[in-house]
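User: Show me sequence and structure for the first protein, then do the same for the second.

Assistant: Starting with the first protein.
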Amino acid sequence: MATSIKDKLVIKPVTLKYIDQYNELMRYVFQVTDRQLQESGYEKGELIRSKRPVLQEADVFGWFTEDDVLISQICIYPCEVNIHGRIYQMGGVTGVGTYPEYANLGLMHDLIKLALEKMRESKQFISYLFPYSIPYYRRKGWEIMSDHMTFSFKDTQLPKLVDVSGYVERLDVNDENVIYIYDRFARITHGALIRNKFEWAEYWRWENEEERTAAVYFDSNEQPQGCMFYWVEGDVFHIKELFYLTQEACHGLWNFVRAHFSMIDEVKGDIYMNEPIAFELDDSQIVETIEPYYMARIIDVAEFLSIYPWDDDIKPFHFIVKDPVAEWNNGVFGIKQTGEGNVEVVREPIGKPVELDIRTLSTMMMSYKTPAYLHKIECLRTDPYTLRLLEKLIPGEQPYFSDYF
C-alpha cells in the first residue's frame, strides 16, 4: 500500500511557483501561528514575501502529488562557516517537513539523500542543522556540534567596573559598525557563520528587531571592537548575544550593563559556546543551563579532510568510516603529508587505523568532543599512539554558533 502511494508521487525542485505551498507546509509542520508572526513583527502575508529569497537563493526539493501539491520538502541554504580559521562552504539544512498523512513512506529519507548529493556537487563539504529530533538526525549521520547556554544572576552579582579607555554607543542592530564587528569576529571564531545580507535577515526573522538595541564598544582610537544585542523589560536586562574582538571590549560592554544597576533586578542572557561565565564573576553562585544546539555532518570525507587545518605535522594513519546514507563516505581514508607540507587523502590503509562512524568523525573534527573522550565512550577505536596523535592534530577550540535557520 505504501509503495503504491509513493509510486504516484514525484520529487522535484520547489520553485517560486510553489511559494504559497512552501509557506503553508512550513507553518503546519512548525506550528507557526498568526499570533507568533505578529509578535515577531510580521504583517499579514509578509512572511511569504520574506521567504522569497529562500526559494531564489537556496536549493529546495520536495515531493509532489499527481495534482502538483507539495507534501514533503527540504531546504539547503548556501552558507559559509569558519572551521578553525578556514572558510568552508556549508549547506544549512532547514525547512524539513512532511504532512502527517504521508509519514512513514520514506519520503524524507529520499530527500535527505538527494540533499547530500546536491551539497556534495556544490562543494559544500560540511552541513549544519537545528534538530527537531536529535535521534532522527543521528540516524542520518549528523551529530551535535555546539551548545546553547543561558545564564541568570542578580544585579548585585554584576561584574565590578573595569577601567577601559574606550566608550559604548547605542546603535541600530543593522548599523555598519555592528556588521563590521561580527564579520571580523566570525572570521577568527571557530564554528561561526559568515553573515551576509541574507544571513542577517534570517538571524532576525523570528525576532522583533525593533525591541533590540546594539551596544557597541569603541576603543580609544574610535575603532569598533565589541557588540551586544540587548533589551530591558520588567526590571530584567536581557542579552541576546555578545561578541567582541578584545578583552577590553568585553569589560566595556559589561560596564555598560552595570550602568543599568538602578533600573534592573536581574540579568539574563545567552551564550553559544561551552564557556560558562560563572568563573569570571566575583560571585559565581549563579544559575546556568546548557542544552545541545546545532548538529553538523561531514558531506564528503575526502574533500573535507584534504582542506582541514590540521594543528600539527601528520604521521600517516587512516580512518575507517561508516556512513548510513552517503555511500561515498564508506571505507578507508588514508591521511598523509606530502613533501611540500600539503595534506593528501588517499583511499588506502596507511599507518594505523581509526574506526568510527560519520557522526563521530563530524563532532570530533568540529572539536565539540575530543578523540580521547570519544575513545573512552567507545565511539572511536584505535591504538594509544594514534589516539595521542589525533589529540595533537585536531585543534582544541570549541565551536561557536549563534544563528538559527
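Switching to the second protein now.
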Amino acid sequence: MAPECEVGVKLLVTGGAGFIGTNFVKKVLNGTYKNISKLVVLDALTYAGAISNFSKNELAGFEFHKGDIRDSGLVNKIVPNVDTIINFAAESHVDRSIQGSDTFVDTNVLGVNVLLNASLRHKVERYFQVSTDEVYGSIDSGSWDETCALHPNSPYSATKASADLLILAFNKTYGLNTVISRCSNNFGPYQHPEKLIPKLITSAIIGDDLPIYGDGLNIRDWLYVEDHCDALNGLLLNGQPGEIYNVGGGTELTNLEVVHSVLNHFPNSNSQIKYVQDRLGHDQRYSVAVTKISNLIDFRPSRSFENFISSTIKWYLDNESWWKSRK
C-alpha cells in the first residue's frame, strides 16, 4: 500500500478552465479539498475553456498559465513548482473527432507524452490522468471492470485509450507514480452546449427542437460533475500507483429518457424531439463497474439524477449569457 498523499499537495491542473477542470478548481478554492495547498492551472483556452469561469476573487487563489500541454518548453517551466499533476486537458467531443482526428491525436496523445516526460524529468510525486469509459467500447450487458480489454470505436476514444496505454508504460518502465480514472458521461454547470444535456437544456430554453441521434435508444451512465470531482480528489489521496479506477454515476438512461427528463421541466416549451441521422460508429451502451473505487474510498452519488438535472437546468437558466455566446 502506498502512503496517502500528505496535506500540502502542490497541484498542477491542466485543462483547469474547461468543464470538469473548472468544477474541480472551484472546489479546491472553496476549501472542499483541504489536502491541496498550492494550485496551478494550465489551459489553452480553446473554445471549450474560459478563464471567465472564475471570479476575480477566485483568480486570486491560483497561479494561471495560458498555454498548451503540447508546449514542452512551457510545461517544463511549470512542473518544477508542483509535485502532482492532474490532467483534464483533452479534446473531448466525439462529433468533432469524427470530422477530423488530427487535433485529438495532438492533444490527447502527444500532449500527454509531454506531461509524462516532464513528470519524469522533474520527479513529480504523482501523475493523474482523467480518462473515459469510452475506451472500453460498447457493451451489450453487464459492466466493464478495470481489467477489460480496450476497444475504442471513435477517434476520440482511440486517442484516450492510446494515452492510457502510454501512461501505464511509463509506470511500468520508469516507475512513474501514475493513476488513471475512467469516468462515465458527466453533466453539470459550465459544460459546453455542444454536449447532450446542455444542448437539450439550452434548446428547450429558447424553444429550439431537441436533436437526437438515430432512434434515441443509445444508453449512457450519467455522473454529476461535482460527484466526479469528489471521486478524483479521493483518488488523488488514496489511489494506488499504476492502478486504474472506474468512476460511474450508477444511472443508465437512454438518450430518449434524458430528453424526456429535461422536457418535463419545460412544460410550456415549444421544443420537440427531432430525430437526426445517427452518428458514425455510435456506441450503443456504456456501463462501468465501480466496485474497485468503492472499496477504496467512500464513493457514491450524493443525490438522484432528477435532482441533479433540476439544479443543472437552474444553472443554465441563471447563466444565459454564459451559454448563449457558445451555442
